Amino acid sequence: MLRTTSQLIALHGELEDRVAEILRSLAQIHPEAADTLSKLADEGVQHRDMILKVYREGVTDAFEVGYLSKPMDEDEYTVREPKGSLSSAVKTALLNEDTVIRFCRDAAEDSNQLIPGLPQTFLRLAKRKEKRKAALGALA
Amino acid sequence: MVVLDEPIKGVLDVRNYIDGEWVESGSEEYREAVNPATMRPLARVPMGCTEDVEAAVDAAQEAFPAWRRTTPLTRARYFFRLKDLLEQHFEEVSRVCTMEHGKTIDESRGEVRRGIENVEVATGIPSLMMGYNLEDISTGIDEAAIKQPLGVFACIAPFNFPFMVPLWFMPIAVATGNTYIIKPSPWTPLSMVKLMELVDEAGFPPGVINMVHGDVEPVQAILEHPGVKGVSFVGSSKIGRDVIYREAASHGKRVQAQCSAKNFLVIMPDADVESTVPGLLSSFFGNAGQRCLAGANLVMVGDDEKFIDGFLGKVQRATQGIRIGYGLEEGVQMGPLQAVPRKQRVMDYIEKGVDEGASLMLDGRKYDCGGYPRDCFLGPSIFQGVQPNMTIAKEEIFGPVMSVLHAGDLGDAIGMVNASNYGNAASIFTGSGKAARRFQYEVECGNVGVNIGTVAPMAFFPFSGMKDSFYGDLHGQGRDAVDFFTERKVVIQRWP
Question: What does the alpha-carbon distance between residue A118 and residue B446 come to, in Å, rounded to a whole number?
Fold first, then answer.
């Protein structure tokens, strides 16, 4: 279970890194979609850094950063390795996007009132990720 | 369990930083600084000597004339560079802080951030240091008040916030044109070693910022040295009053001594339970209770037994769920006490509470500490049935212990707060603006919270405190700090 803001931020980073890694692998296997997949992978790394920056600039010892309002279960946010054709792989990649979007929304709710700007940034990322699903879906 | 990478690998030989150089202490006495979670030695720390302080004061005095003539804007730019470096090394410094102190990584990052915020405030010194003037106080005569630096200042830092506390003082002192000496706690010297590495890299002129390690002898030397114009201290009331305040004042120095506390958190029957409980946990058990803003006494107001029992039940369950372990594990919510004697001191208070008739709702002595050596670990404890005259309700425990008291009404609760010798912080949790206003108005302490558990003033506000929690006039941080580190010189001029 995730109990601290630190864990929340770390898991977000892991999810973004993992998704980016998967997209880069797909780009190697499917050169016809490489440009889009690589761009999406780079975006994920940017998203990770956005959250990390907001956290580091807002973290304080004064408020309740050590205690999430309700612990989150990290097992609910696992991403899967795509297999098979490009079409099939894209479907899995889209499911992974949904997982990260769900994480961002849950994290926004759970980190509300903890660190200035953190919930808003998570929601902003969720919106961006919703939008980029169209680009990913178009590859199928 | 994933432990974050430790930035300190071996055992460091700690040296002083004087006149822009890393130099050996003249002391032959050393102490080991130990990671309280793993009990692994981290550093050999010199206990310091008078000669170390004399060398630092000489360097700081020599650097002062040129530094005070350096323009405020240029001085501010050194702090912009320091801020950039601190951002680059943010994670490393945070981990060092956790390793030497034991606090969780979230707490260390929060501490480092608050230190950086003080550096940020210092970058605004061209505005902060402005004086004021008035034309024509008499015909053709103008009067101005200007702020000038005084010379060499020093701080004597505590173990509990090894990175943040020196930064309450040094940036404003130096940005206003003074030169500076930091004496870190010998228990937790390494965060300051990291800071001084970055100070060096930022290119501050030699002698402007110096560091002397040690214990009693260098403190005494700082207090007695005629070249030191003022001293900032954070630590216990006993040392703050009997040693720092008296000695510094008797040697004609400015002094600000921020000291012990016994902080009350008052729960009104209309408090919002869901939002209050996490705030209490952080206040009472954050930093393992080792901070002067930590909650100590929880005062339940009124006779609504259903509310009180329900509230305390939630507090107890949430407290039982706190995960204890090494702060470099990201899921850990409470680390160890900083050293074995500190744990023993808290254990002694727990014994005392039991002996005096309070009942332990939760006994921190029985906690699991995640497989780490038990030397410094202690779980959170909650005492019920505490009376205001009991030792555990009056004295600062400086550990993860909550004492629950009861008050008939708000007036009684305020009376309890005001009866304390200390006046650092107090909070009220309520949905009533009227109750909150009365509390804020009547309570005798320096930092007041309304629905806030840990009343930690930001870098641009003074860190207040009253009664036995503060000795001096001007507090650390904010405009108080600018005034503490400057003299107001008045100029009246006429040009016939």
Answer: 30
Give the chain B residue whose CA is nearest to the CA of A113.
Answer: B275
Distance from CA of B288 to the nearest CA of A (A): 12
CA distance A8 to chain B (A): 9
Catalytic residue, candidates B155, B292, B369, B376: B292
**Nearest 10 degrees: Cα torsion B407, B412, B415, B420:** -10
**Percent over 70 (pLDDT), chain B:** 100
Instruction: From chain B, pick out residues whose CB is under 8 angstroms from the CB of A59.
Output: 106, 109-110, 113
pLDDT tens by residue, A80-106:
998 889 899 999 999 999 999 999 999
Residue B10 CB coordination number (10 Å): 8
Query: How near does any CA of chain A get to the CA of B360, in Å?
Result: 24
Q: How far apart are CA B113 and CA B93, in angstroms?
A: 10
Domains, chain B, in order of start with CATH, read 12-259+469-494 (3.40.605.10), 263-450 (3.40.309.10)
E-strand stretches of B165-227:
179-183, 209-211
Catalytic, B369? Answer no
How many pairs of residues across A and B have Cβ atoms under 8 Å apart? 78
Q: Where are the domains of chain A?
A: 5-63+82-137
Tens of pLDDT along B450-496?
999 999 999 999 999 999 999 999 999 999 999 999 999 999 999 99
Q: Which fold has domain A5-63+82-137?
A: Ferritin (1.20.1260)
